[in-house]
Amino acid sequence: MCLGGIFVENKGIVKKIEGKNLYIELFRDSSCAHCSGCGKKDKTIADLYHYELNEDIKINVGDLITFEINNKFILNLALLIYILPVILMVLSYIVAAKLGASEGQGIVVSFTTLVVSFLGFYIFDKKTGSKMIKEEISIKEVTPSDEIKITSCGPKE
To answer: Can you tell me where the transmembrane regions are (predicted)?
Structure first.
């Protein structure tokens, strides 16, 4: 994963193909180095990543796939998810104070707004968030399994 360019990249090996559905074992990249959130400490992410193939590309089990996602999309999404709730929290406190609420009531209103905004993002993510992200992901490169020379753990046997 490289945030320096326009796109963020990740690689993985195709483990299963069902029609246009690919199931890919993604490699852990440098951004995962200090995190064990997925529960694994080896070279791959815990669950197989599902990708619906919309492109007209020949892919086989064992091929190495490089994905890319627009960096601007990720940054805008992060801004929306992490900054907007805090702004709403502050604004709700100000509005409550203008309407005559006590300081304690204003604090309760602002934290309630924070919780409601996070619940809203959670519901939005469950309904359409994943779909939006999947639309921004595309296959950049496919390396056939017989051309893969090196794995993440050294030379291929």
So the answer is: 73-95, 107-124
Question: For 86-112, what is the mean pLDDT?
Answer: 95
| Cβ-proximal residues to 54 (8 Å cutoff; 6+ apart), any chain | 20
Residue with tokens 């997925």: 38
For residue 102, what are the contacts with CB-CB under 8 A and spacing of at least 6?
none
**Short-list 123, 143, 140, 141, CA closest to 70:** 140
| Rounded mean pLDDT, 62-74 | 79
Give the number of other CB atoms < 10 A from CB of residue 103. Answer: 10
Phi and psi at residue 39, to the nearest 5°: 90, 0
Q: Stretch 140-153: mean pLDDT, rounded?
A: 70
Tell me the H-state helices in 41-102.
Answer: 71-82, 84-98
State the chain's mean pLDDT as an integer. Answer: 76
As given in the structure block, the two tokens for residue 66 are 């490089």
90 pLDDT higher than 90:
yes
The answer to whether the CB of 20 falls within 8 A of the CB of 53 is yes
Rounded to whole angstroms, the Cα distance separating 102 from 85 reads 22
89, 111 in Cβ contact below 8 A?
A: yes
Report the C-alpha gap between 116 and 110 in whole angstroms: 10
